[in-house]
Amino acid sequence: MAVGIQDLSGTGRTWTWSSSTVDGITISPSSGSITVPGAGKVKTDVTVTVPAGTSDGARKIPVTFSAPGVANIQAVLTVLVAQPGSWLATVNNSGISHDGRVTSANFDGYGWSYSAEALAASGATAGATISSDGLNFTWSQFPGGEPDNVIAQGQTVNLTGSGRLALLGSGSGGNSSGTVTVTYTDGTTSTASIGFSDWTLGGGANQPSYGNRILLTTPYRNSTGGGSQAVKTLIFATAPITLDAGKTVKSVTLPSSVAGGQMHVFGIAVGA
User: What CATH number belongs to 2-81?
Assistant: First the structure.
């Protein structure tokens, strides 16, 4: 990981920085200095040490930057503690922002994000169960602005179950499709084609594709530029995939190659 600073004033400075510890998590070195040229940005690598037995979840490590003649800057270094192969270890995109902090998420890479408040009104509260075709998804328990979905790039997620499988998500920049691979406990695999419709259905011009089920609908989305846009914004479930009979799932590998826009996955459900 790294800590760094960007100068927007046009005046070069040498900044000193220091970090704190949270739940025994430490940064090494815990302090240092960074010389930043005017209108430039510089970072320095640090090592994060997490004690054994630390519970899963995001931790925000306070970092203070100071330089002569200017006010101190308070920042945080977010450390995500998660077991390898877990869903939490896989999330890599912050796609949901609170209406009062619209700059904290960027779902599509262009500054737009789902509204946490609008999703909650649609039934997506922290830890809520969202069902489709008899399969149950668990909604993210992390607050808006934290990583909450996976941009599919071939990640493998460990889980167990049998019968059927479905994914929760949407596409950005258009519809997205690819191949998901299911690995069973006996070492065999199966594949299936999946796809997600664009999260706004092309600004309302299109119908859902790939047999997608509409699970969540919000009347607007947020912008990092401030405010919101009145466009219907959705999250879908894929049609259930029938798994190999008599076998138990060990893991699911998301598409490594995606056609169309980006494929965002908010959850995976397995069950009869």
Answer: 2.60.40.10
> CA dist 163 to 90, 120, 160, 166, Å?
24, 30, 11, 11
Global pTM? 0.82
| Strand, helix or coil for residue 90 | helix
Burial tier of 165 (Cβ tally within 10 Å: 0-12, 13-18, 19+): buried
Q: 10-residue block means of pLDDT along the chain (272 residues)?
A: 92 96 96 96 96 89 95 91 91 94 95 97 94 95 84 97 98 98 98 98 97 98 95 98 98 98 98 92
How far is it, in rounded angstroms, from Cα 10 to Cα 12? 7
Q: Which amino acid is at 159?
A: L
Domain-by-domain residue ranges, the chain? 2-81, 87-271
Contact between 143 and 227 under an 8 Å Cβ cutoff? The reply is no
